Amino acid sequence: MKRTSQPISTVASQLLRWSLPVIMLLAACGIYRVTRVSTSDDSLATLPNQPNVVPVRYDLPLVATDQQLFEVLNRVLPPEGPAHTNNYVHALRLWGPQAKFANPKVPDGATMLSYFLDDATFRKLAGNNAPPLFRETDGLIDSRAWQEADPHNRTGAVHVDDLLATLAESGVPLDAPLKMRDGVATVGDLLRSAMRRFHHEQHEYEWTAISYARYLFPAKRWKNQYGQPIDLDGLVDELLEQPLPNGVCGGTHRLEALVVLARIDDQVGALSRRSRRKLIQHLGGVSQRLIAAQQLEGYWTRSWTTGSQTSGEENTAETDSSLYERILLTGHHLEWLALAPPEVQPPREVIVRAGQWLVRALLEAGDSELRDRYGPCTHAARALCLWRGKDPYHAWRQGQLRDVVAQAE
After folding, report:
1. What whole-number distance in Å separates Cα of residue 48 and Cα of residue 276?
2. 212 and 33 in contact (C-beta within 8 Å)?
3. CA-CA distance, 299 to 290, in Å (whole number)?
4. What is the pLDDT of residue 408?
5. Left if phi > 0, otherwise alpha if psi is -120 to 50, otherwise beta: which for 2?
6. What angle do CA 17, 20, 22 make, to 5 degrees?
7. Which helix (H) or strand (E) holds 409?
8. β-strands 229-231, 221-223: how paired?
9. d(Cα 303, Cα 323) in Å, to the nearest integer?
């Protein structure tokens, strides 16, 4: 029997009908793949679970003796009273998750860490009426920001990504559960959200950079939620190009971020040669300004950015608030210098004078001054411990044991 051929248009129509579902499926897979890549950067999918560690470098007893360390630390124990998120950030950063205290009114390290990771602990300390500390919006996790008019502002996060950076410094892995009020995520999800939100016009980025260095290195680039590529060299330039006094705590947290980037780069080699050179030159220039601006007593004031000391008239007019500023600036500068590479360090006498001034200032400050300015005081205490190469909790425990032995004798 003779086969009758079909019209070409009919054959094409049948082929299209048969292949269309396959084409649509492949297209859908392609769209999913593109979407998946754009919202889950490969550089974020291959991260090590544990954060990078910045080891201590120095042990200079002239900065603070063992007994001085103990007495200073004894004055900056975690604060009693109602929960205060910013105080807990600073206390956990100083004392670490392993710290334990005999006073039941003083939260230990595990409790403070749980405050950030588990909403049940947060509500226990902050009160059931307190809004959640973390929430998920449009697929991104964010912390509740401090707002002056908020009746619950004591439990809000004061700085962008400071909670994430504190978790990184506390050694919390990325797969640690983050138990929120409306679901469970991980610290890795919190990190990814921070990276997605980041953009170069961000008001605060110091703690984002620290989180990046501790969790993301050696990954060098990613895309934010707006599709903008973010790269490591651009982030370093952003930190370097701001005027020195700009930023939180007189610009000192930006210096800390640069130091953390440099120190972790020593381990993983992520910075380009150009960025590394610019970063070291910048820190070296800041160090020279600090040498010139250090007061005879050993502290620094807001004039440090000019590389000059304050006049005698300004010194005699200082008030209690300027004492707070001196503790804040001296403590923060001594802290980042304790982590800085040797090639940017000032002479040791500069460090020793600053350390001994901090010891005197913290031991002579009133209880209300320490309570009201708890955060900066913990930076000062941590700086002293870093220059002694000591873990604060262990240094404090050793001081307690020395007291017990001395009393027994």
Report:
1. 23
2. no
3. 10
4. 80
5. beta
6. 130
7. none
8. antiparallel
9. 14
Is the separation of the CB atoms in 97 and 113 below 8 Å?
A: yes
Q: Nearest-CA neighbor of 58 among 322, 270, 335, 293?
A: 335
SS3 label, residue 395: helix
Going by C-alpha positions, the residue among 32, 6, 173, 154 that lies closest to residue 84 is: 154
Among candidate residues 141, 253, 156, 264, the one with its CA nearest the CA of residue 205: 253
CB 360 within 8 Å of CB 353 = no
Contact 324, 373 (CB under 8 A): yes
Assign 223 to helix, strand or coil: strand
Decide: helix, strand or coil at residue 303: helix
- Across the chain, which has 409 residues, the per-10-residue mean pLDDT values are 44 46 42 34 71 94 98 97 97 98 96 98 97 95 94 96 98 98 96 93 91 92 92 92 92 96 94 96 98 97 87 48 90 98 97 98 94 96 98 97 82
The structure tokens 């990190």 sit at: 191
Cα–Cα dist 270/234, whole Å: 13
DSSP per position, 179-196 = EETTEEEEHHHHHHHHHH
Q: Are 69 and 388 in contact (CB under 8 A)?
A: yes
Beta bridge partners of 306: none
Amino acid at 292: A
Q: Are the C-beta atoms of residues 357 and 297 closer than 8 Å to each other? A: yes
> What does the block give as tokens for 192?
């990814």
**Are 307 and 288 a contacting pair, CB within 8 Å?**
yes
Q: Which amino acid is at 37?
A: V
Assessment of whether the complete model's pTM goes beyond 0.85: yes
- Scan for tokens 């020793």, then name that residue: 352
